[in-house]
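Write out structure tokens for Urea ABC transporter permease subunit UrtB.
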Amino acid sequence: MFDVIFIGLSLSSILLLVALGLAITYGAMGVINMAHGEMVMIGAYVAVLSSIWLGANFLLAIPIAFVVTALLGLLIERLVVRRLYGRLLDTLLATWGISILIQQAVRLEFGLTFFGIHIDGLGPGLQNVTVPAYLQGTVSVAGLEFNGYRAFIIGVTLALTALTWLILYRTSAGVQVRAIIRNPKMAAACGIDVKRVNALTFAFGSGLAGVAGVMMSGFKTVFPDMGATMVVDGFMVVVTGGVGSIFGTILSSGLLGEINALVAIGTNDIIARAVVFAVVIGVILFRPNGLFSYKGR
């Protein structure tokens, strides 16, 4: 049972990294970013390419992936999303189109061929990332043996979640983000540069998704479509926890991850996913604003 719970925690950690960015972005900007899953995929490919090009170890790939996906997210926000604020359906369709473009660019090895450069490692083939030997063993805690890499995933997620909380609740930038989540027009009237804050928020959320991709590359095969399901899982966490609620996102990711792990052990992955969807539907029916959404006045 401890092993099952631990596996559930590691799954919840991946969900949390993906959902944190979605929760902040959707809460502050009102944007349904369908390309968020592709940031996960790009992060995984950064882990592959950093080892090929730079000979970098797995740990170094984490900050590299954060920077690359954050810059890509900033570019998407500046070129596309910024022009579509207040048009929910248009942003959904536009970011969905961007996700398809990114997938096809990777699948067709189109990444940097604008400059006549061929990227080894990209393409439709499956890729794998080697986890360092010191993360492949087991960790003994109170007489219980846990997988070292899954413990590492949980540790990285806790660190990034704490960093996100500190930024949102202990910095002036975080105050601005929370003000925009509550009332963007009033925040703008108070002198907050809403466009600038939105751009940085979008970039930060994309960076977190990139780190999630690196974490996933250690135990899953890397391929162009790997992010497609992650954006759905991320939105399920956000909807369950409550839009814009970091506390709700943390708890709902843990809840859905553990449900998935417990049901999968007793049955199979397909039934486990069906049960997770049923739980999310139940939450939507009885608590449409999520379990821990902000209370209006």
